[in-house]
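User: what does the whole thing look like in 3D?
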Amino acid sequence: MSAPLLEARALIKDYGAKRAVNGVSFCVEPGRCFGLLGPNGAGKTTTVEMLEGITAPSGGTILFRGAPVGPDYRQEIGLMFQSTALQDFLTVREALDTFGHLYRRRAAFDELVRHCALEDFLDQYANTLSGGQRQRVLLAIALANRPALLFLDEPTTGLDPQARRRFWELIRDIKAGGSTIVLTTHYLEEAHALCDEIAIMDHGRIIAQGRPATLLADHFDESVLILPPDQAPALARAGIATQETLHGLEIATREVNATLRRLLEVDADLSGLRIRTATLEDLFLELTGRELRG
Amino acid sequence: MNGLIRFWVVWKARNREFLRDRASMAWNILLPLLIVFGFSMAYTGDGPAQYRVGLYGTVAEGIDPLGDLPHIRRVPVTDLDAAIVKVERHQLDLLLDVPGGRYWVNRDSPHGEMLARALEAVRQPPPVRQQVSGAAVRYAHWLLPGILAMNMMFSCLFGVGYVVVRYRKNGVLKRFKATPLTAFEFLTAQLLSRLWLTLSITTGVFTLAWFLLDVPLRGNPLALFTVYACGAMALICLGLIVAARLSSQELADGLLNLITWPMMFLSGVWFSNEGLHPWLQRLAELLPLTHVTEAARAIMFDGAGFAAVAPHLAALLAMAAVFLLVGARSFRWE
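Assistant: Here's the predicted 3D structure for the full assembly of 628 residues, as C-alpha cells:
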C-alpha cells in the first residue's frame, strides 16, 4: 500500500454545543477515488469542507503528503461544490481564464476544454448554460490547476440520467489519468460505479469503511427474490416473510433453491420473478436506518 | 508577483461584469444626466417671480427696512461674508446691512440694479453702495456637483456592498476562498475596479454636462478630480462595511438605503444646508457626501484650489481609512 496522499486524523467540528463531526479518521491513497456517503446531516459536508480548507476543524489533524496542511495546500487541490454560481456576464472562456490565473500551476487551456467537452459553449455567458454544461464548466474550473487532489461535492445532483452518465465518464477519465478524488454523493449507484473505497458516515462518525464489494460481502450473504404484489396470497400460503417495496414483494434468503421449491409447491406464479444481490443502497439503509432524515 | 496576477484577473473579471451589465451601466450614466438636464429645462424662464434681498443685522420690530416695496422676498442672513458670495452668484439680488447703512449689489445683475435704485428711493439717507461682480450660478449648474456625488454614492455603495453580498449568497465567495486568492487581493480588486469605473463615469458625465450646458469650472480641474476620487474611495470603503459579513441581499438593500437616503438629503445635494438646524448641520459634516459636494462646488463656482478644499480632502481620506479598517477587519468569505 502506498503512502496516503490525504489523511484525516480524529477530525472534530463543533458548532456551539452541537458536535457535527466526531473523531473522523481515514486515508486517501494516491490515484484512488474515495467516496464519502451518509444521510442528510451525517456530517459529510462539514468533513469535506474541513478537508478543503473552507472550514477550520475544532480538533484533529489533516495531513497532505504526510505533513499538516499549510498555505500551499490550496495550490494542490481542486474543488467542485454542489452549487456554485459564476460571476454574471463572464463567458466560460473568461471564467476558466480567471480561475486558471489564480494558481501557480495551470492546466493547458485547450486540453481542459477538450477534456470537459466545452467547445460548443466556450463563448457563452456562464449563467446561460444548462445544468449539465454548467457542471462540466465547474469541473473544468476544478481542474484548472492540474490538482493533485480533486474534491467533488455531489457533482451530479440535479442532472438528468444522460448528463449524469456523461459526467461519470469524465470522472473515470480523470481517474485514469492518475488523479486522486474525494467524492461525496447521495447517489449510491454513482459511488458504486466510481469509488475504489467508501466511508459511510452517520451522526458525525464513520460507521463503515472499505471497498464497496468487501463491505457488501461483509454485511450481506443473502439474495433477494422479487415477486409482483399480486403474489401476496401465494406467499402467505407458503409462510414466507416478505417486505413490500417499490419494486414488489422482496424475499431475502440464503437458500434460493429451497425457497423457489416452496413457492412452486403453493402454486405461486413465478413468471414475474426477479433475483438480485444486495446493493450499496441496501447496505446504506441497513447501516443508517430507514427513517426519514431532515 | 502571483498576488499581482491574482488581483489583476479578479479586477478584470469585475470590470467585465460591470461593463457588460448594460442596464446598470446605462442607469449610472443616464440618471445624473437626466436630472441635470431636467432641472436645466425646468429652470429656464424669464427670471424669478420675486426679487430676493438679504437683510443683515437686527431689524426693529414692525419696521420694514425696504419700506413697502412689493415683489421682494426678505431673506434674513447672519453671515455677512457668505451672503456677499451669494450676491456674487446672483443667489441674492441685493444685500442690505441695516445697522451698517451699506448695501451690496452685483453690477452684472439687472435685477440688482433695479433694486438698488428702488432702495435708494425708499431709504433716506440712502445706504452706501458696495459693488461686487460675478456671473449667475444657475440652479441646474449648482446641482451638478451634488448630483455627480450622489450618483457616485449609489454606484460605490451598491456596486461594492450589494455585489459582494450577492457573491456571498450565491457561493462565488466560497469558491474564491478555496483558491489561493487572499481576502486582501479580492477586496483590493473590488475596490479599485469600482474606483476607476466610477471615476470614469463621473468624469464622462461632467465633461458632457460641461460641454452641453456650459457649466462653469473656475477652479483647478485636478483638484476637482481629486475630490471625487477621495469621495469615491470613502464611499466604496463604506460599502465594504455593509459587504463585510451580510449574506442576505434584502438586508443589504435595506442597510444601503438607510445609509444613502439620509446622505442624499443632508449633504446639500438638492438645497443648501444653511437652512438646516445646527445639530443637523453638524451631523451632515460626518457624511462623506457633504464634503464631496461642498468641495466640488467651491472648486467649480468659487475657483477654489487644493489648499481651499484641503480640509474636505483630509476628512474624506480619514473616513476612507476608518471605513476600510473596519470593513477589512470584519470581512468574512462566508
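In plain terms: The first strand of chain A starts at residue 6 and ends at 15. The two ends of chain A are 39 Å apart (CA to CA).
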